[in-house]
Write a structure and sequence with these properties.
Keywords: Signal. By secondary structure, this protein is an alpha/beta fold. The protein is built from 12 helices and 10 strands. The protein is globular, with a radius of gyration of 27 Å.
């Protein structure tokens, strides 16, 4: 009986000792509620947490993809607060907005008009009643030209000539497809007046090469690789929009601006005349839930390493700190705004 009592007493003593050790570890090691740790750091978890950044771009034959790869592999991957970053090919603007909302991406490249529609839930059926609530601006990039391309030997000479033809209008739900629909409408045409094929730039280029397509809408900073790829096998003709069509577009949609592309841009591929068209602005947006410090560092790193973007694509040279907020159609992320304010760039 005495041995049982002694064993019980020893067990109680051991339990108290273990409890004391646990308490000492909580007080002297790891992090407590105030954010202090035994390594002397004073940052709280939110400011020290590293994030993995997945960037949604566009088709591999467009402009978004090569710029996105340069951003993730050469810039963001070295930004403080980012543990890993990668770019993925996507269906571009509309899809990017929807999948940012779903949490699939942490940042996306997108047209400024599509970003506005997504945040405000208007104009496009995809966003009516389905607003994207976690989108914040990081920077404006470069103008994206609306280009309607056919082959030089085609009889197509204007938008009106697309009636009855087979035309690639971009991936279904993409920014290009939204632009194609609006441009055709400005010329008095609808999809009912032609055979609309939903496909990306690379497939459209192939279709024009093999004769299964008559024309294609391609939206991107000129020169666009899909048109250059086509021009390597067949001379190209990029159509000009009429003054009336341009006027209809710029008056009805605030994000279109008139743009002239020099004939020299595609002169090596058969283009003989300058191209009168319209453009929207490509912008980079992020998940509004990303930490402020992380987005600040990403923004800072991008402008301090802009040479990587210039090497990736001709449009990289259009990306400037001075123009970082031009055409920004949604609210900036606080981290980006903080960097711009420090650099004397207006964020109003």
């Amino acid at each position: 009986m005495r041995s049982l009592k002694l064993a019980g007493l020893l067990l109680i003593v051991m339990l108290f000792a273990l409890a004391g050790c646990g308490s000492a570890q909580n007080e002297g090691g790891g992090s407590d509620d105030s954010g202090n740790s035994d390594n002397g750091g004073g940052d709280d978890a939110s400011s020290s947490e590293e994030v993995r950044v997945t960037l949604g771009t566009g088709g591999t034959s467009g402009t978004y993809y090569p710029l996105g790869v340069a951003m993730t592999e050469q810039i963001f991957s070295n930004a403080e607060g980012v543990s890993q970053s990668r770019a993925v090919s996507t269906g571009a603007s509309v899809t990017n907005a929807q999948e940012l909302a779903e949490g699939k991406y942490d940042a996306v490249l997108i047209q400024n008009d599509i970003a506005y529609y997504a945040v405000n839930g208007e104009t496009l059926e995809d966003f009516e009643g389905n607003t994207v609530d976690n989108m914040a601006g990081m920077t404006s990039l470069y103008p994206e030209d609306i280009q309607v391309v056919t082959t030089a030997d085609s009889e197509i000479g204007s938008l009106e000539d697309l009636e009855g033809k087979t035309v690639a209008v971009g991936d279904q739900g993409s920014g290009t497809e939204a632009n194609a629909n609006q441009v055709l409408g400005a010329a008095g045409l609808t999809y009912d007046d032609l055979t609309a094929e939903y496909m990306g730039f690379g497939d459209a280029s192939q279709g024009l090469q093999n004769g299964t397509l008559d024309a294609a809408f391609i939206v991107g900073g000129a020169p666009t690789s899909a048109i250059q790829e086509l021009g390597a096998s067949k001379d190209v003709k990029v159509l000009s929009l009429s003054d009336e069509v341009i006027s209809n577009l710029t008056s009805e949609y605030s994000y279109y601006t008139e743009k002239t592309i020099s004939a020299d841009t595609y002169a090596d591929y058969g283009q003989e005349e300058e191209i009168n068209t319209v453009a929207v602005m490509a912008i980079l947006v992020v998940d509004s839930e990303l930490p402020e410090d992380t987005v600040y560092n990403m923004t800072k790193s991008m402008f301090e390493n802009k040479d990587a973007l210039e090497a990736a694509h001709d449009r990289g040279s259009d990306i400037t700190l001075e123009g970082a907020t031009d055409g920004m159609s949604i609210d900036l992320h606080p981290g980006a705004a903080k960097y711009y304010e420090e650099e004397g760039i207006s964020v109003e």
